[in-house]
Amino acid sequence: LDADALAACAEQSAMLETLSRERITAELKKLLGAADPAPAVAAMAQTGVLPHVLPGAMPAALPLLIHLEEGKPGGWIRRLAVLAGDIAALRLSRAETRDFTRVRDALSGMDTPAALGWRLGWRLGTDALLARAALLETPPAADWRTRIMRGAQADFPLKPADLMPFLHGASLGRALARAQAHWLAQDLRPSRADLMDLLGLA
Fold it and tell me: If we measure between CA atoms, which residue out of 170, 177, 171 comes closest to residue 156?
């Protein structure tokens, strides 16, 4: 946008308060679903429009996310997560809110690609990995797709029944949680026997 257009947008930004949440949400989803929304989002931030739409949003990582997508954009959720704004004013469906929350929560963790795949599945695991890489300005490993898919197809090798001869109630839950945390931290590689040994139940 040229200087005159930016100035005009800035002058009209307050009018966004008169638009419905549904309209704003629909337009934002359309924008974030475009091939490269980064220039438009940057212009929105420059003119003061973005804070009206998504308070607290920070668009700096969006161009890198677009680059990491390599021309294969996924859903708009990952791009919304990278902006890191307050979504309270948006009118999202329950499923969209759930997906956004799961991706956003994964951004602060250190899960491996395989662990993300196991926790979130292929689609959201990909969203979380690329969004986190953009925010950290660190490209993911070349084999990240294979690793996410491995996690998405994996089954946690330990079942409650495996521990029931030895543990019950709260102690059973704590043991399963400990084993699961170890399994995820070790990139989903420990076997059932390894986990039983970890718990001293081999």
Answer: 177
**CB atoms near residue 132 (< 10 Å):** 24
The whole-angstrom separation of Cα 77 and Cα 163 is 39
Q: What is the pLDDT of residues 26-59, one digit of tens each?
A: 988 999 999 999 999 998 898 888 888 899 999 9
Q: In 10 A of CB 116, how many CB atoms?
A: 27
Residues 63 and 13 occupy one common structural domain: yes
Same domain, 93 and 168: no
Q: List, in order, residues 6 or more apart from 184 with CB less than 8 Å away.
A: 111, 112, 115, 118, 119
Distance CA 155, CA 119 (A): 11
DSSP state of 197: H
Which pLDDT tens digit goes with each residue over 151-179? 999 999 999 999 998 999 999 999 999 99
Q: Measure CA of the first residue to CA of the last residue in the chain; give whole Å.
A: 66
Is the same domain home to 78 and 175? no
Q: What is the widest separation between alpha-carbon atoms in the chain?
A: 75
Q: Which domain holds residue 70?
A: 3-152
- H helix runs in 107-191, sequence order: 113-136, 144-152, 160-163, 169-185
Distance between CA 158 and CA 141 in Å, rounded?
29
Shared-domain flag, residues 119 and 175: no
